[in-house]
Specification:
By secondary structure, this protein is α+β, with helices and mostly antiparallel strands. 61% of the residues lie in helices and 8% in strands.
């Protein structure tokens, strides 16, 4: 009688099971990553609740017999409560916009310090590299995990911010225009582009400096500069439109237009600076006559340029992020060669 010997069945790997390198990186940084996801969700939930509350407050107020203008004494409380809800909603939109603008700096600091530089500074990277994990794979696992959290969290915040900003009742206090820095940077894919650039810059800083605090400081400084400087090129990423007026009419910008440049037009078609004929001792009409001024011009972006500008700037940011990530891998390879 022959005994039937069977090899023990190998456990089936679940489709949701992470590879070993990713699982190790997730366990090492699970507290920070889960906390980040929780904060993203909390911020989105708070803004959603505020948006629903101001809509409810508007519905309740509109269904009453009160009016904001020509208010009676009996309506003082309801009017004040409704306007307070509007003001708080506008403030929360601004706060969320500023928070999303600050995220690239925070992401860069986390990537530079706790994610990369700390392991290099303390020498714990040697354990991972000795377990058949190459330096490139060690870096890739950390960047991929962090990028997944960043993409999910920032996309959620940007979508909720855009929904809260662009929908809802007509309020007494107008929302910020689409081209205002905090609004523009928080209601489109540009927010995600800056966040991923922060991650890549943090990786470069962590590998280059190899010390936690200096790497975090460098990443914050670079990203703060990027968030401030790069938007200066924003008006020039797409062709502007131009409107003109006679000089007897005041210069204006079309409603919802993003003003880029404004000045005077001479009879020969040349453009003159707006300040040419303004001053405490200047006679505007005499100045207009001397320089042959026939009208005004305004270069602007209409609201229809929002998405072209967003996609152009996002493409530039993703290209910069890819270049920074490539530089991080090259630096790591050079230091471990």
């Amino acid at each position: 009688m022959t005994a039937l010997i069977t090899a023990p069945a190998k456990p089936l790997r679940s489709a949701l099971t992470l590879p070993g390198a990713y699982w190790a990186a997730l366990r090492q940084h699970r507290t920070a990553l889960w906390l980040a996801l929780a904060l993203f969700a909390l911020g989105a939930a708070a803004l959603t609740a505020d948006r629903l509350w101001v809509a409810h407050a508007a519905d309740v107020f509109m269904s009453s017999d009160c009016s904001i203008r020509n208010t009676t004494v009996e309506c003082g409380g309801p009017v004040r409560g409704y306007l307070d809800a509007e003001i708080e909603f506008a403030r929360n939109l601004d706060r969320m916009g500023m928070a999303i603008l600050a995220l690239p700096c925070l992401i860069g600091a986390f990537a530079a310090g706790p994610l990369i530089a700390r392991d290099l500074e303390t020498g714990t990277y040697k354990l991972a590299w000795s377990q058949s994990h190459s330096p490139a794979r060690w870096l890739a696992t950390r960047l991929v995990l962090c990028a997944a959290v960043v993409v999910a969290g920032v996309s959620l915040l940007a979508l909720v911010q855009r929904w809260a900003w662009s929908t809802g009742p007509a309020l007494e206090y107008a929302r910020a225009p689409w081209y205002e820095r905090a609004t523009y940077g928080s209601v489109g894919p540009v927010a995600l582009g800056y966040a991923l650039l922060g991650l890549a810059v943090g990786a470069v800083a962590g590998i280059l400096l190899r010390r936690t605090l200096p790497a975090m400081s460098a990443a914050v400084a670079v990203m703060a500069g990027a968030v401030f400087v790069l938007p200066l090129a924003r008006p020039h990423l797409w062709a502007t439109e131009t409107i003109t007026w006679l000089h007897t009419r005041p210069p204006v910008t079309p409603e919802s237009g993003y003003p880029v440049a404004r000045g005077l037009l001479a009879s020969d078609g040349s453009r003159l600076p707006e300040s040419l004929c303004w001053g405490p001792v200047r006679d505007p009409e005499q100045c207009f006559s001397e320089h042959g001024v026939t009208g005004w011009y305004t270069d602007f972006h209409p609201s229809s340029h929002f998405w072209p500008l967003q996609f152009m700037e996002t493409g530039i940011l993703l290209a910069l992020a890819a270049a920074a990530a490539y530089a991080a891998f090259r630096l790591l390879r050079r230091r471990t060669a």
